């Protein structure tokens, strides 16, 4: 039985008792008090055992929490050491990556410059070839025009000229 309930019952019995002429004294019914006191004697050890069990459980929980905290701290230290090592490795790798990137940029610039020079030379040669071809085409047109004009001049009036258009 709950000890607080029994204490409340004792308080009710005392309050129900008759006040005596002597200051702060009350007469209570013995038939109600003795069974209540017996129940209190039985309940108090149960309450004490329950309290002791709760205290043991609390101590066990605290010990487990302490062990878990130590385990977490150990893991955190291990992880911090690993991250520190990784950080050092990462810094070294980053430094090497910068050097490699710079070298690659220089090589790419050199390759681009070479490609630009090659393209420029190829375009210049193509321009020369096109100019020669254009000169040949222009010379061919002029020759055909001259031949046409000569034929037209050699023709007698009224002859039709076949311009090759097929009309």
Question: Strand share of the residues?
Answer: under 5%
Termini separation comes to 129 Å
The largest β sheet comes out as: 2 strands, antiparallel
Q: How many helix segments? A: 2
> What Rg is obtained from the alpha carbons, in whole angstroms?
58 Å
Uncertain parts: none
How many runs of DSSP E, i.e. beta strands? 2
Q: How many distinct domains?
A: 1
SSE class: mainly alpha
Query: What global shape is seen?
Result: rod-shaped
What order do the SSEs take from the amino end to the carboxyl end, as H and E? Answer: HEEH
Strand order of the largest sheet: 1-2
Mean pLDDT: 85
Helical content, roughly?
over 70%
Which features would summarize this protein structure in a list?
167 residues, two-stranded antiparallel ribbon, single chain, 2 helices, mainly alpha
Explained architecture:
The structure is a single chain. The chain is an all-alpha fold and 167 residues long. The protein has one domain. It has two helices and two strands, in the order H-E-E-H. It has a two-stranded antiparallel ribbon with strand order 1-2. Strand 1 and strand 2 form a beta hairpin. The longest helix has 125 residues. The radius of gyration is 58 Å and the shape is rod-shaped. The termini are far apart. The model has no long low-confidence stretch (mean pLDDT 85).
């Amino acid at each position: 039985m709950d000890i607080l309930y029994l204490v409340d019952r004792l308080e009710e019995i005392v309050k129900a008792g008759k006040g005596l002429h002597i200051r702060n004294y009350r007469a209570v019914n013995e038939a109600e008090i003795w069974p209540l006191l017996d129940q209190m004697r039985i309940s108090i050890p149960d309450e004490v055992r329950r309290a002791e069990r709760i205290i043991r459980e609390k101590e066990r929980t605290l010990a487990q929490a302490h062990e878990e905290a130590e385990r977490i701290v150990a893991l955190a230290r291990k992880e911090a050491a690993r991250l520190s090592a990784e950080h050092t490795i990462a810094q070294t790798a980053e430094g090497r990556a910068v050097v490699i990137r710079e070298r690659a940029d220089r090589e790419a610039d050199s390759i681009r410059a070479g490609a630009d020079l090659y393209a420029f030379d190829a375009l210049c040669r193509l321009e020369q070839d096109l100019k020669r071809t254009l000169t040949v085409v222009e010379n061919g047109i002029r020759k055909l025009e001259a031949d046409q004009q000569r034929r037209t001049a050699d023709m007698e009036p009224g002859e039709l000229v076949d311009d090759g258009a097929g009309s």
